[in-house]
């Protein structure tokens, strides 16, 4: 049955997840999906990484969604990430001024993704982080992880999630700062160096 | 060795039997597929082997994952939910209307949320460069749409009945006709990507993707219901499909306290 009687809460059960399959590329990714930071914003950071399978091969058919607070730690409530043009029916893109906090980035043929967003501020007891949701052909249920930024060791040490992650896997959640000023964050779906993934209850 | 439908059928049956035994032995019902589902070969190298770390959201209401990105009127155009009107001509195929409600686990409507859809055309071909299935493309059909749910959580799409298509995982592998859905709720934890199927499709037993949902009742929740009251006279066939997002949200925390 796919008509749900909301007067009987016991019948309200979740719709199962499915893979995105291979052919979402003309539907979900959009131009400027990773250009989350407003143009010229002083708190901008650049992120990049690869998504790998269990044999260490990069995935050309995956995408990530990033979602994070603004530099003050406030949650953006601004729409306009995928603005559409009513005249042409195409994409207008972001307006370059407002920060929506969310982006969607397709991996390229090398399995590489890049994004520019704002350095998130801390919320609650957590160290600042960017929430990540990973989708791919072959992945029957999407995966959540987090990108923490290096630098403030005290904040990272006090983070409730990082405190629970075994020491040898903790680094999979912390981006590495490169000499060019970008942050590198690879996602390994399986095997050696497997990224720590999260579920919420 | 060539992989046959018979091989896949046996694997599907074994996974199903293993699930039934787990439940009979007291394990909880599984509403979602396991990420490790061998009959769908692409899952083999793409599922984590380590268990996820569970975050109890009631311990920290400040988590950014308890909020969701906002989408609004700027993010859609008025006809984005009508996939038959995106080109100069009429697409070929049987017109359908798909309508339903987006709900949370407590049955409350999720208002103003983004729903994105994509699908094959009536011949079973996607308008995607990498798709090389030898079926005709339709110059009047891209098969992509989006909408925002209304104040009661309702969404509605007008489109073309998609065709089934072969996908080469094994000899004679065919996907049942389906429409892909991508959904947002009030919390990022509720994010969902799934597929809607059509009633009584004879391909269901053979398809390892729908069978990855090993629970029989959960699998039924992926199948729309034909609804004659949604059929539009002289125009389209109507289907109803309600969607329930899993995952905790902020309201859930307040009530759980």
Automatic annotation (TrEMBL), chain A:
Keyword Metal-binding (UniProt): no
SUPFAM superfamilies according to UniProt: Aromatic compound dioxygenase (SSF49482)
NCBIfam families referenced in this protein's UniProt entry, alphabetically: protocat_alph (TIGR02423)
Name of the molecule in the record: Protocatechuate 3,4-dioxygenase
Gene Ontology MF terms: ferric iron binding; protocatechuate 3,4-dioxygenase activity
Family statement: Belongs to the intradiol ring-cleavage dioxygenase family.
Keyword terms of this UniProt record: Dioxygenase, Oxidoreductase
Domain Intradiol ring-cleavage dioxygenases: 43-191
Lineage: Bacteria, Bacillati, Actinomycetota, Actinomycetes, Kitasatosporales
InterPro entries linked: Intradiol_dOase_C, Intradiol_dOase_core, Intradiol_RC_Dioxygenase, Protocat_dOase_a
From TrEMBL, chain B:
PROSITE patterns per UniProt: INTRADIOL_DIOXYGENAS
Region span, Disordered: 23-55
GO biological process, alphabetically ordered: 3,4-dihydroxybenzoate catabolic process
Keyword Oxidoreductase: yes
Biased composition (Basic and acidic residues): 23-38
Intradiol ring-cleavage dioxygenases domain sequence ranges: 98-126
Lineage: superkingdom: Bacteria
Alphabetically ordered keywords of this record: Dioxygenase, Oxidoreductase
One Gene Ontology molecular-function label: ferric iron binding
Recorded family membership: Belongs to the intradiol ring-cleavage dioxygenase family.
UniProt-recorded name of the protein: Protocatechuate 3,4-dioxygenase
């Amino acid at each position: 049955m796919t008509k749900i009687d909301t007067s009987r809460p016991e019948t309200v059960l979740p719709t199962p997840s499915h893979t995105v399959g291979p052919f979402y590329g003309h539907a979900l990714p959009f131009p400027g999906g990773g250009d989350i930071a407003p143009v010229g914003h002083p708190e901008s950071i650049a992120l990049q990484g690869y998504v790998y399978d269990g044999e260490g091969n990069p995935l050309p058919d995956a995408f990530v969604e990033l979602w994070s607070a603004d530099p003050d730690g406030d949650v953006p409530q601004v729409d306009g990430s995928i603005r559409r043009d009513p005249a042409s029916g195409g994409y207008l893109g972001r307006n370059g001024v407002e920060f929506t906090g969310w982006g969607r980035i397709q991996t390229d043929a090398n399995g590489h993704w890049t994004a520019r967003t704002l350095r998130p501020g801390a919320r609650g007891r957590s160290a600042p982080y960017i929430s990540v949701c990973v989708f791919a052909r072959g992945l029957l249920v999407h995966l959540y992880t987090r990108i923490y930024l290096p630098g403030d060791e005290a904040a990272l040490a006090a983070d409730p999630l990082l405190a629970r992650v075994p020491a040898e896997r903790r680094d999979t959640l912390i981006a590495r700062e490169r000499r060019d000023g970008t942050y590198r964050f690879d996602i390994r779906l399986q095997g050696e160096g497997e990224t720590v993934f999260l579920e919420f209850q | 060795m060539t992989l046959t439908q018979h091989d896949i059928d046996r694997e599907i049956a074994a996974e199903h039997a293993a699930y039934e035994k787990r439940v009979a032995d007291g394990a909880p019902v599984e509403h979602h597929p396991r990420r490790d589902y061998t009959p769908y070969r692409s899952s083999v190298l793409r599922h984590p082997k380590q268990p996820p770390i569970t975050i109890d959201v009631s311990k920290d209401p400040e988590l950014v994952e308890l909020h969701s990105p906002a989408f609004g009127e700027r993010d859609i155009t008025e006809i984005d939910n009508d996939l038959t009107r995106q080109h100069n001509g009429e697409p070929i195929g049987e017109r359908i209307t798909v309508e339903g409600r987006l709900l949370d686990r407590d049955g409350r409507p999720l208002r103003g949320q983004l729903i994105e859809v994509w699908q094959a055309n009536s011949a079973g071909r996607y308008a995607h460069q990498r798709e090389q299935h030898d079926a005709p493309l339709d110059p009047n059909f891209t098969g992509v749409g989006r909408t925002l749910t209304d104040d009661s959580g309702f969404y509605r799409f007008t489109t073309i009945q998609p065709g089934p298509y072969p996908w080469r995982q094994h000899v004679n592998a065919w996907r049942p006709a389906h429409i892909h859905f991508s959904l947002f709720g009030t919390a990022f934890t509720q994010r969902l990507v799934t597929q809607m199927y059509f009633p009584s499709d004879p391909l269901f037993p053979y398809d390892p993707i729908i069978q990855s949902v090993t629970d029989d009742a959960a699998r039924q929740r992926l199948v729309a219901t034909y609804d004659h009251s949604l059929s539009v006279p002289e125009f389209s066939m109507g289907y109803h499909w309600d969607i329930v997002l899993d995952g905790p949200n902020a309201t859930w925390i307040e009530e759980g306290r």
